[in-house]
Amino acid sequence: MAARSETESTPVKNRTGMERTSDRELVVTRIVDAPARIVFEAWTKPELLKQWWVPKSFGVSLLSCEADVRVGGQYRFVFGHGDSAPMAFFGKYIEVTPPSRLVWTNDEGQDPGPVTTLTLEDQGGKTLLVLRDVYPSKEALDAAMASGEKSGMCETFDQLDELLASRGAVSRQG
Amino acid sequence: MAKHSQAGLDASFAALSDATRRGVLEQLGRAEVSITALAEKFHMTLAGMMKHVGVLEQAGLVTTEKVGRVRTCKLGAHRLEQEAAWLERHRQLWDERFDALDKVVEDLKRKENSNGRKK
Asked: Rounded to 5, what percent of chain B is helix, strand, coil?
């Protein structure tokens, strides 16, 4: 890594909070070093959204990213991973209040998904970002948490299959 | 690896190697269900389903409780640890996502500042 000059300020990394606040609610929080209108822009313009929604470390690629950010407008993100079939996440925006509030549905699952509310609160040049997922019921949130959230049971079963396959390999050796 | 955890893993794998039992876990992830209802759902005799639930119970994946004449099944004891682990995994996911958002936001701020100077 290149040496930094003493005068260059090293930004302090902001911490992400995550909490289950009730039987059917999950809350993610973060401070962003920019005014709310800039965060809102990064969240609502597809060409910006696709630069950060799927960081490289996720190991999946964003094949397409459409977002028609207005009340009733649809969004659709399609992810790819290796040779697996692409997976689509979609829903619609039900509230759009620039630059402080955005609410959307998550409709990709078989059962009704959570409704997500993003609020952006200006705090002296920074923004308090709060992302709230409200599930239709306690059972729905429990199920999401039991199954590896959005990828549904498939991912969990894939992992199980891998574990079982490796166990099989071990038995064969023995 | 400690012997007892090896035995635990063996029991878990054996329990999970059956499609019906995986299906039962999926159901229980949604809600607590009685053995009778599970038997109906999976088109099985009550005795057959009791055997499957017994295997899951042995592996610690499911617990059952008898209230009156109904035996209800739910996901096993490791639930709270699993929930904490799930939350931490998702916190990290969002953390990485927000780190990437920070970069995009920095770019936007820079552009805005340089546009401001041009005006």
From this structure: 70, 10, 15
Confidence of residue B81 (pLDDT cuts 50, 70, 90): low
Q: How many CB pairs under 8 A join A and B?
A: 96
Of A51, A131, A143, the CB nearest to B104: A51
Tell me, what's the ipTM?
A: 0.78
Closest CA to B102 of A13, A61, A62: A13
Q: Measured between CB atoms, which of B25, B31, B96 is closest to A139?
A: B31
Q: How is chain A split among helix, strand and coil, in percent rounded to 5?
A: 30, 35, 35
Calculate how close chain A gets to B113, using CA atoms only, in Å. Answer: 12
Q: Hey, how many other C-beta atoms are within 10 angstroms of the C-beta on B21?
A: 21
SS3 track for A25-59:
EEEEEEEECCCHHHHHHHHHCHHHHHHHCCCHHHC
Q: Please indicate whether, in this complex, the C-beta atoms of B103 and A52 are within 8 angstroms of each other.
A: yes
**B93 to chain A: closest CA residue:** A58
Q: Would you state the pLDDT for residue B80?
A: 61
What residue segments make up the domains of chain A, in order of their start? Answer: 17-153
- Inform me whether the C-beta atom of residue A165 falls under 8 Å from chain B C-beta atoms: no
pLDDT at res. B41 = 94
- What's the predicted TM-score (pTM) here? 0.63
Neighbours of B90 (CB within 10 A): 18
Residues of B with Cβ-Cβ distance to A48 under 8 angstroms: 104, 108
CB A164 within 8 A of CB B17: yes
Task: Please answer yes or no on whether A34 and B75 come within 8 Å at the CB atom.
Answer: no
CATH class of B3-75: mainly alpha
Test B109 with A38 for CB contact under 8 angstroms: yes
Q: What is the pLDDT of residues A152-164, one digit of tens each?
A: 333 444 444 444 4
Measured CA to CA, the distance from residue A10 to residue A25 in angstroms comes to: 35
Q: Which CATH class is domain A17-153?
A: alpha beta
